[in-house]
Amino acid sequence: MDRKDKELFVEKADNMRKSKIVLLCLLCLTMTACSNEFAKREYDSAEKIAESTDHYTKAGSVANYINGEYTLTISKFNGRETVWEETVKDNRDIEVDIDFSLSKGQAKIVYIDSEDNIITLIECLPETSTDGFETKTLLLKSGKNRLKIVGYDCEDIALKMLFTEPHKL
């Protein structure tokens, strides 16, 4: 192989390497752009939301539950996640004060009773974030009761819930 052939071979190899890098970058961008599609599709699906399993992607999440006060901050979120669960023997009412905001996207807090009926307690967009606490009364039905956060394209979520009495997560 003479010098000219070697240079041509090296040039083709470099071009092939560059093409592979570009394709890899495009694949990564495509996957990132599509990562919230499942969350958008499932946002209004009662069947998916009521499932006992959660399905989400999130980054920068901190949750804390102390003496009936639950706080959650998430930098990015897509999907549905259980944030509270209580199993009761007899039906009873509880009050929950909710403060909920985000800077981007759409999210809601839903109540799922023991029969998998879903009630949206609060829905949030950046322009409709709560201005302080909103009080919601829940009728806990005998069996397992849950609260879930459901959202897509969400950034900078701040959620605080105060319960009338301490409950386990």
Question: In brief, what are we looking at here?
Answer:
The protein contains 3 helices and 7 strands.
Structure description:
With 169 residues, the protein is of the alpha+beta class. It is 25% helix and 51% strand. The longest helix is centred in the N-terminal third of the chain and has 32 residues, at 3-34. The protein has helices spanning 3-34, 37-42, 46-50, and strands spanning 55-66, 69-88, 92-101, 104-112, 118-124, 134-140, 143-163. The model is unreliable at 28-34 (pLDDT under 50). It starts with a helix and ends in a 6-residue tail after the last strand. It contains three helices and seven strands. A hairpin with a 5-residue loop joins strand 4 and strand 5 (118-124). Strands 1, 2, 3, 4, 5, 6 and 7 form a seven-stranded antiparallel beta sheet that branches.
Mind sketching the topology for me?
Elements: H1 3-34, H2 37-42, H3 46-50, E1 55-66, E2 69-88, E3 92-101, E4 104-112, E5 118-124, E6 134-140, E7 143-163
Antiparallel strand pairs: 1-2, 2-7, 3-6, 3-7, 4-5, 4-7
Q: Structural class per helix/strand content?
A: alpha+beta
Q: Tell me about the biggest sheet?
A: 7 strands, antiparallel
**Radius of gyration computed on alpha carbons:** 23 Å
**So what's the overall shape?**
elongated
User: From N to C, what is the helix and strand string?
Assistant: HHHEEEEEEE
